[in-house]
Specification:
- The complex is a heterodimer of chains A (164) and B (114).
- With 164 residues, chain A is α+β, with helices and mostly antiparallel strands.
- Chain A contains 4 helices and 8 strands.
- Chain A has one domain: START domain (Alpha-D-Glucose-1,6-Bisphosphate, Chain A, domain 4).
- Chain A starts with a strand and ends with a helix.
- Chain B is mainly α and 114 residues long.
- Chain B has a single domain, classed as Orthogonal Bundle (Arc Repressor Mutant, subunit A), CATH 1.10.10.
- Chain B contains 5 helices and 2 strands; from the N terminus they run H-H-H-H-E-E-H.
- Chain B has a two-stranded antiparallel sheet with strand order 1-2.
- Chain B is elongated and about 75 Å long.
- The chains are: A alpha+beta (164), B mainly alpha (114).
């Protein structure tokens, strides 16, 4: 199954994907820095030079990505708000524009919730990103995506809520 | 191309239904209004939103004024969602590989004998 993107509301983006692996391994892959840097890289051509994570409620994290091509960097940082191993992990996300730029206001963090459920060795991952404002979703969604992405996306209003 | 205007225009079920009808072919304002329990001015208002977003063009064929769908903004919106999906699919493909490695490191074995 490839990743399915849905837009459950006008300020949320949701990605759903299944994996042939026990839920605990998905949890580990999302919470151990030495594992996170192996996969959470976005499109090809990026590395993750900084990945610090204190995975507990109230603990903080710091992520930075660097372009292989021109060395430009950007990142996210924030705090874990819910840590319920191995089923649920939630954190807020403050965007750090670094050298890339972008328009997410520093005072409007996104909230990211990861839900993991397992049946018979297959784990379903649901990752929902909720933005404080539609404008914040513009900037946040555009980061990490290299060239060609239009910055003009903003309001969905009830589009996908009604279409679903 | 303005994704903002496109998504806003698509955010209404009547407008989506109008576009679905126009995918089948051109239609006049009257023909488009027929299926809805809405006044013609109300439908015309929706058509203006669609036209401003570049999703339809209106001909000037005398009284008929046929409306025609324009696919470019819809394709742009679809491209956006596809690119977002591709980013995450790339991440998760790497994650698949990592999980295979992790599964091999921690085989589900029977309890070790003491």
């Amino acid at each position: 199954m490839s990743a399915q993107v849905t837009l459950p509301s006008d300020r949320e983006v949701r990605v759903t994907r299944t994996f042939k692996a026990p839920r605990q391994l998905l949890w580990d892959a999302h919470t151990k820095p030495e594992l996170v840097v192996k996969w959470m890289l976005g499109p090809p051509g990026w590395s993750m030079p900084v990945c610090e994570m204190d995975v507990r409620e109230g603990g903080s994290y710091l992520w930075r990505w660097k372009s292989d091509e021109d060395g430009k960097q950007f990142g996210f940082h924030g705090t874990f708000t819910e840590v319920k191993e191995p089923a649920k992990l939630a954190h807020d996300e403050y965007y750090d524009a670094g050298d890339i730029g972008g328009s997410m206001p520093a005072s409007d963090p996104a909230l990211v919730t990861l839900d993991l459920s397992e049946t018979g060795g297959v784990t379903t991952l649901v990752c929902t990103m909720r933005f404080a404002s539609k404008e914040a979703r513009d900037g946040a969604v555009a980061t990490g995506m290299t060239d060609g992405m239009e910055m003009g996306y903003a309001r969905l209003d009830d589009l996908f809520k009604q279409a679903a | 191309m303005n994704l903002d205007a496109t998504f806003s225009a698509l955010a209404d079920p009547t407008r989506r239904a109008i576009l679905a009808r126009l995918v089948e072919g051109e239609a006049s304002v009257m023909e488009l209004a027929a299926p809805f329990a809405l006044s013609q001015p109300a439908v015309s208002k929706h058509l203006r939103v669609l036209e401003n977003a570049g999703l339809i063009t209106k001909g000037r064929d005398g009284q008929r004024r046929p409306c025609k769908i324009e696919m470019a903004p819809l394709n742009a919106a679809n491209d956006w969602i596809e690119r977002y999906q591709q980013i995450w699919e790339q991440n998760y493909a790497r994650l698949d590989d990592l999980l295979e490695t992790l599964k091999q490191e921690k085989p589900r074995s029977k309890r070790k004998k003491k």
